[in-house]
Write a structure and sequence with these properties.
CATH architecture of the largest domain: 4-Layer Sandwich
CATH topology of the largest domain: Purple Acid Phosphatase, chain A, domain 2
Strand order of the largest sheet: 3-4-14-15-16-18-17
CATH class of the largest domain: Alpha Beta
Largest sheet: 7 strands, mixed
Number of helices: 16
Strand content: 15-25%
């Protein structure tokens, strides 16, 4: 098939990016492949067909993928995600023993850049795109009217509202706070006095935060008297008619010597049991660090039970294949998984995790990603993010640092929702810039925001959004002991989508 495909591409005088050729080579039928190649040429509008070209006509590509036959369609969807084209996937699953019931879900993957070369202009475009996205959110606030651009400020003192990105922050010898804001037209210095009502808000500002301010002054200096974040508000809580439950699992760390395999197997056995709650579970969300990985930190081989990532994924798959087929699983990667560390992280690939791709009821998603569970015209939104930025938020925000928020990590997630961004400050996490949009912006307010990373279960609520930071399946490591982190393992939160009741199940060994 490969030779035939190469001949077909040459005959049409086309030049294809490697990832796109691999997609065509996966087709069983040469005729279907030829038709799809013709569609790609139309979508690209060029004899040189690249991922970048196709991303400009993504809707046309989605329609062509929808026309493909069943198995070919599913294979092509997964391969498109691998190369960094974010296709929205909608599937319908008929569940046995439920009369006329169909459960739908949509997955919104993060665009992973597809391995394209990164240039300075990508960083510029990335921050411009972030500014535009958060500006649109802020402009919806009813208390922000008569917004002005920085270059429209004159010499006369005036009251004003503006939206800017924080580019500099410092304290003067008089304990005043000087903050420099930028928008797309210029920059302005703003002053906040220690006795001001908004001084605490101003202290909380981080570099690269996009906020709106109410102030007065002129083009030389303005005085702030209020600050507004983009913020998240869930005005209506979605409840399903059917009694469907979803479970949240994170930080399995399969392959580690500290992996709690016996306890995790107990959880799997419970899912297979006749327990009334277990039988209601239709979805499980695995929120990253699914294996312990290899070479994640120096000397890691000393703490590994399984020395290769393939063996670790095989152990993980041995658990997952036992989970009843009626349960759909969504799995995103974390820093310990066999994907790149910079965010957004792509789905776990076939190079190391091929066994996971063979599990029919396991859907591999990017980190972060949004999953929408659908019942009729109702959507229940679950936002998945492993949580690498939690540590930098705790270190940089005084309120979190003083309360030792590693013990209550949901408090850090509140700040992500408040800022509508997962890692606002440049360098707070390693990321891949995207010149067209910032994939770490929280575009839609979810019903549930779930994370992992800190190995401690914590539940909180922020303006109607349920926050769940996941437990783990690994006992305390030497590093955790050194930094004083005490994990809270083997706990599984289960949420009922009909009643929104949350139960915490403990599968740890009872003393």
């Amino acid at each position: 098939m490969k030779e035939e495909m190469l001949k077909l591409v040459r005959e049409r005088g086309l030049l294809l990016e490697k990832g796109l050729f691999e997609i065509l080579d996966s087709f069983d039928s040469l005729d279907i492949a030829e038709e799809f190649l013709e569609s790609l040429e139309k979508a690209s509008g060029n004899k040189i067909i690249t991922i970048s070209n196709l991303s400009k006509n993504l809707q046309f590509v989605k329609e062509r993928v929808e026309d493909l036959p069943g198995e070919t369609k599913r294979a092509v969807e997964r391969l498109f995600v691998n190369i960094g084209l974010s296709l929205e996937i909608k599937r319908e699953i008929e569940v046995k023993n439920k009369e006329e019931r169909k459960v739908n879900y949509k997955i919104f993957y993060s665009d992973d850049n597809g391995g394209r070369k990164i240039e300075v202009k990508d960083f510029v475009g990335h921050f411009r795109a972030r500014y535009h996205e958060l500006q649109r959110i802020l402009m919806q606030r009813p208390d922000l009217t008569n917004l002005i651009s920085i270059n429209k400020l004159g010499m006369n003192r005036q009251s004003l509202n503006l939206i800017g990105i924080v580019s500099e922050k410092r304290i003067t010898k008089n304990k005043n706070l000087i903050i420099k804001f930028e928008d797309l037209t210029g920059e302005i210095s703003a002053l906040v006095k220690p006795d001001s009502e908004c001084f605490q808000k101003a202290q909380e500002l981080q570099l690269d935060d996009v906020v709106a301010i109410k102030a007065s002054g002129n083009k030389d200096l303005i005085f702030i008297y209020d600050i507004f974040w983009p913020d998240s508000f869930l005005t209506e809580k979605t409840k399903f008619d059917e009694e469907i439950c979803i479970a949240f699992v994170s930080d399995v760390h399969a392959g580690s010597k500290k992996h709690l395999g016996k306890e995790f197997q107990k959880f799997i056995d419970w899912l297979k049991s006749d327990n009334e709650l277990a039988k209601k579970i239709d979805y499980i969300f695995f929120v990253g660090d699914n294996i312990d990985g290899v070479g994640v930190f120096p000397g890691q081989e000393k703490v590994l039970d399984l020395k290769s990532t393939k063996e670790q994924y095989q152990l993980l798959a041995s658990y997952l294949t036992q989970i009843p087929e009626k349960i759909t699983m969504f799995m995103c990667p974390g820093q310990h998984d066999a994907v790149r560390v910079p965010e957004p992280q792509p789905i776990i690939g076939k190079d190391y995790g091929s066994v996971l791709h063979e599990i029919d009821n396991l859907i591999l998603v990017s980190n972060p990603s949004m999953i929408k569970l659908i019942e009729g015209n109702k959507e229940f939104k679950v936002f998945m993010y492993h949580g690498a930025s939690i540590h930098s938020l705790i270190n940089e925000i005084e309120e979190l640092r003083l309360m030792k928020a590693h013990n209550c990590p949901a408090k850090a997630v509140k700040h992500m929702l408040k800022r509508r961004h997962l890692a606002p400050t440049h360098s707070s996490v390693v990321y891949v810039p995207n010149g067209e949009y910032d994939p770490l912006v929280i575009k839609e307010v979810p019903d549930v925001f779930c994370t992992g990373e800190v190995h401690r279960l914590d539940i909180d609520n922020y303006n109607g959004v349920l926050i769940i930071t996941g437990s783990c399946w690994q006992s305390q490591t030497d590093f955790e002991e050194k930094v004083g982190n005490i994990p809270d393992p083997c706990k599984v939160p289960v949420l009922n989508l009909k009643t929104r009741e949350l139960k915490i199940l403990d599968f740890g060994e009872k003393e």
